[in-house]
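Q: For a teaching handout, I want to show students what a protein-ligand complex looks like in token form. Below are the inputs, and the small molecule is iron/sulfur cluster. Please produce the holo structure.
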Amino acid sequence: MHITVDEQSCVGAGQCVLSVPDVFDQDEMTGRVVLLQGRPPADLEDDVVEATRACPAQAITVTDD
Ligand code: SF4
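A: Here is the structure, written as tokens, with iron/sulfur cluster included.
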């Protein structure tokens, strides 16, 4: 799995950070998403897919390697 995020679309809602804190963080100044790892371990992939669906701004994209 490969993750990309669109910081410009992110509205800082923070669901992704709550769902998968090992993968997503938020910028302390802007509140926008910060991607911690673009290729998560397999055991986090389901949570990342769920976070992608839950993002209100469609700011997270996952693709297969
Ligand atoms: S869930 Fe979407 S809008 Fe909210 S912080 Fe994460 S990327 Fe940004």
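A: Two things your students might notice: The mean pLDDT is 97. The first strand starts at residue 2 and ends at 5.
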